[in-house]
């Protein structure tokens, strides 16, 4: 495991680091200093997890993700289910009903056809669960040693609900910050599996499609400002993105953030902070204060939101900053993930 | 260079071969024996280069491609322009106006940031030329030795013209087979560059966006049955796909198929058949006989169709088969690419 801590800005770097794929500060720098200035267009610059585009009056969400997770198979899922759920969730976070997916495989010469079948079957099953169809695809093969078994890109199209305009820039002081459940499961599952660590209790990835949970939320509230699934970079990075894009502060309560005991134990053992560990089947919703209780109640009726709760609120002070009241009653600043706590998590 | 000739069917194979990414027979087998039975849905099974889906009454084309071309930079283009043009063309071949693209990068640790900037700039330029916007993206990083510099996935959405239903299954006996220009440029460009072969005249890739050429075609004819860009697997594989999907024969005239002298020379030197060498900025159109001359004339007004011409016609006899009258007056069967003439061509 490679843990970077204080990387220099990309301006000082000539080459790509693992941390540039972390979803944390280095990823943001790569986006801000390489991709955005060159590709600059208004939709891309909104920096949401999905683009919203309008075609002949129909508003669509459009999102892409490549999956390079290692290992390919892990407790609770595999690269196939992960690749479908990840893209379904990016569509759902934009308030869209996920409809169609593409899937593109980069296979390494020598990869087992049986493993490819198993992964494809897992994709089909995940697509069925999420109510989406995989309608187009592509396969490329690279020489042995130029890949790592299989990389999968999924890209998705969803239909944005009428009148809905969610944005990580939409949080307002007083809004509640709601989290759907315990954090860190996916990251610790991948890490322990990859490093061959034995734990008393096996930790399963939480990979799951969140579209139904989103339906539950939107059915009881018109005061939802933003939704995000805190994947790479963990809850800390997602909250920092919302704080920065909305120009507000975010204040959370450590004791309100659920962490499974096994995950907490593994984090202590490994010197990791669960706030920075990746999740796959969790979401953060920023919701008008008056709707917060109703949203939490609705989320708890969905199996993926059983442990949902209010973990904090949006503040006017400390704009762009996330602070946490710790279990000891002190306050700490929760910064964005600086480097790469754990590469190839998804 | 690896040349496979007579591979066994995938049923006899346990692992992925380079030829499974060739766009020829092995690719078709992988699709038919692994992906289609598991992912089976009606849109995917149409086997077009793009899916056509309907959302709230709007008909969209949706297509994905990953690019693993080696080398990354070559005369006439680079992986960036190739990745934009390739997806633009798959949309255009479906009769759609290309609108929005996603781009997803898999970077290898240690890749030069300057090269990434150069590739991104090339994508931006290609997108502008094609009139599309890159609206969403993703970046992953893999360890040194688990990639090969950069792999790029682009996925695109286009708006299908009203009333248009192009399909590789739509060819009818008597239709004309029209080719937009000389074949083999891209494949020979990549091959000579990769193998360090010196030729008297440098060959440039023909990578280019074909949307304007498609506009020209559709503006003069309502009798267009199908369009395809003959990329991996070359003209031979594309014609075989159309023959198989339409259940018709295709008869072409060798002397009507333009091949640049340098490409012909390189092919003779290397023992390659230009019919199987990849193209990037060429298209094949199957058009009702009565519209064929008008379509060719319209194509010739576009710089990318200057050398357009009728190369053959659709026949009732020999269904599923492509035959060619050679320059010597004999007839030969033009089969699908069997293995992999040239891996990582796009």
Chain-wise SSE layout:
2 copies of one chain form a homodimer.
Chain A: H1 25-39, E1 51-55, E2 58-67, E3 73-74, E4 77-78, H2 79-93, E5 96-108, H3 113-130, E6 133-142, E7 150-160, E8 176-179, H4 185-195, H5 211-220, E9 224-228, H6 234-246, E10 249-253, H7 261-270, E11 284-287, H8 292-300, E12 309-315, E13 322-325, E14 331-333
Parallel strand pairs in A: 5-6, 10-13
Antiparallel strand pairs in A: 1-2, 2-7, 3-4, 5-7, 8-11, 8-12, 9-11, 10-12, 13-14
What features would you highlight for this structure?
alpha+beta; globular; homodimer; Phosphoribosyl-aminoimidazole Synthetase, Chain A, domain 2; 60s Ribosomal Protein L30, Chain: A; disordered N terminus; seven-stranded mixed beta sheet
